[in-house]
Amino acid sequence: MAESRTGGVPHQQAPELHYGTSLTPPMGDNGHRGDFGEQFIQALAVAANLDVLPKAWRDRQGTDWELGHPGRSGTIRFPKIVAQVKCWSQPRGDATAWDYRLKLRNYNLLAGSGWQHPRFLFLVIAPVHVEDWVDVTHDRLLMRHAAYWACLHELQPVEDRTSGYQRVQVPKANLLTVDALHGLFSEQYREMLVTP
């Protein structure tokens, strides 16, 4: 039956789903959380009017997104940065920084200065319960909670181990916003790199 309040289009009731009971694999597992973190970053990058390219088909570079833009007159054309994205639902830290345990391989693919493009760790802090990740109304889409960034170019790779973890301090002052994303393209990060 057509309804006048929907412009003649019949109203359809979406089926009710119960989180964690109707989908496989379970909602909120590591893969699902990782996908949410990457899409959180993509949404910010699109809002910042950046070009967003996904990670390579083979994961040898240790990055999830390559971000770029055409550049401005008198600057480097088509500058790029790359980012490794982690999504965390049980954050720990103090008043100034998140204390994140990063797998050593991932750490070594961010640390040091021998890179062609600046590399960043983007840490997305998300609620524990998947039903709290997003909230939708007719006038907004809210994604919880926030993302933070860290640059590890001044730190040294750990070359004497092939497994384990390295603790990384991600400053809480480094809230990832549209303006912050633009700032990561500044010369200071390219000047930290030593490329052949």
Task: Give the SSE layout.
Elements lengths: L29 H18 L3 E4 L10 E4 L11 E9 L8 E7 H5 L10 E7 L8 E4 L2 E4 L2 E5 L14 E7 L6 H6 L3 H4 L6
Parallel strand pairs: 3-5
Antiparallel strand pairs: 1-2, 2-3, 4-9, 5-8, 6-7
What do you see in this structure?
This protein has 196 residues and is of the alpha+beta class. The chain has one domain: Trna Endonuclease, Chain: A, domain 1 (3-Layer(aba) Sandwich). Helix content is 17%, strand content 26%. It contains 4 helices and 9 strands, in the order H-E-E-E-E-H-E-E-E-E-E-H-H. The termini are far apart. The mean pLDDT is 87.
SSE order, one letter for each helix or strand: HEEEEHEEEEEHH
Percent of residues in beta strands: 25-35%
Biggest β-sheet strands, sense, barrel: 5 strands, mixed
Task: State the end-to-end distance.
Answer: 69 Å
Number of helices: 4
Quote the CATH topology: Trna Endonuclease, Chain: A, domain 1
Pick out its properties:
196 residues, alpha+beta, five-stranded mixed beta sheet, two-stranded antiparallel ribbon, 4 helices, 17% helix, globular
Outline of the structure:
The chain is an alpha+beta fold and 196 residues long. 17% of the residues lie in helices and 26% in strands. The protein has one domain: 3-Layer(aba) Sandwich (Trna Endonuclease, Chain: A, domain 1), CATH 3.40.1350.
